[in-house]
Amino acid sequence: MQILALDASTDSCAVALGDGAHWAERAENAGQRHSELLLPMVRALLAEARLDLAALGGIAFGAGPGSFTGLRIACGVAQGLALGANLPVVGVTTLEAMAETARQKSGRTRVIAALDARMREVYVAAYEHDGLRWRVVLEPAVATPGEAPLPPGDSWTGVGNGFAAYPALRERFRGALAGCDEGILPTAVAIGSLALPRFAAGEGVPAREAAPLYVRHRVALTTAERAAGMRL
I need a labelling partner for 143 at 20 to 30 A (CA). Which of 52, 87, 102, 151 fits? Predict the structure, then answer.
């Protein structure tokens, strides 16, 4: 089964097309240009593979947490494409996608994923791989670096730009971490890899039921916060 996977949850804009064994991917540092880049990337991958949307098994997207605007763009594009082609949709948690990226990159199976949530906070979750799938140890949450929830035990690998943005976060997890890879972000390939078994199990939903996972529910900044350069 071939599926399409999209992600716009961070500054990166990424699309992947594949069946689990082979993936074609396009990714670019988009800044604020996700809405301009996402659809052309999709069209380019489909053209290269000589596939129509209707031939796919479904469309996956990075549901969040992450950039509010990026999450809405990825969800909206996934919904629009899926509705027109009558395809199911799966939203994948971006923090779990970071854990999957770490596993694919270096075999990590105990991962604390942390994304910079701006406003001096992080999105954080912990996952453990049992050889078949990821198990949630700590559900996605938003917290200040010094108050992030602690997973049980040790030998965890910290991943994500939350550790780069806030040294206090590494200090918070000091007793639990065996290592840290601050450069890992969600990828479209990881999102697709996590979505494939869910499509195979019939867990895809109709386009109209797809929704972002915000975790933080603030949708606007105060005037003072905007003046200080804060971003959601």
Answer: 102
Q: State how far the Cα of 107 lies from the Cα of 129, in Å rounded to an integer.
A: 10
Q: What is the DSSP letter of 43?
A: H
Q: Are residues 177 and 200 in the same domain?
A: no
pTM: 0.92
Q: Which residues contact 93 (CB under 8 A, 6 or more apart)?
A: 63, 64, 65, 125, 140, 213
Q: For 27-36, how does the pLDDT look when each residue is reduced to its tens digit (9 = 90+)?
A: 999 989 999 9
Q: What is the CATH number of the domain that holds 20?
A: 3.30.420.40
Residue 132 resides in a domain: yes
Q: Look up the domain containing 108 and give its range.
A: 95-181
- The 10s digit of each residue's pLDDT in 166-222 is 999 999 999 999 999 999 999 999 999 999 999 999 999 999 999 999 998 654 444
Residue 14 and residue 76 share a domain:
yes
Give the Cα separation of 137 and 150 in Å (integer).
10
Q: What is the pLDDT of residues 50-103, one digit of tens each?
A: 999 999 999 999 999 999 999 999 999 999 999 999 999 999 999 999 999 999
What is the distance between the alpha carbons of residues 132 and 151, in angstroms, rounded to a whole number? 21
* 232 domain-assigned: no
Specify the number of domains making up the chain.
Answer: 2
Inside any domain, residue 175: yes
**Phi, then psi, of 84 in degrees rounded to 5:** -65, -30
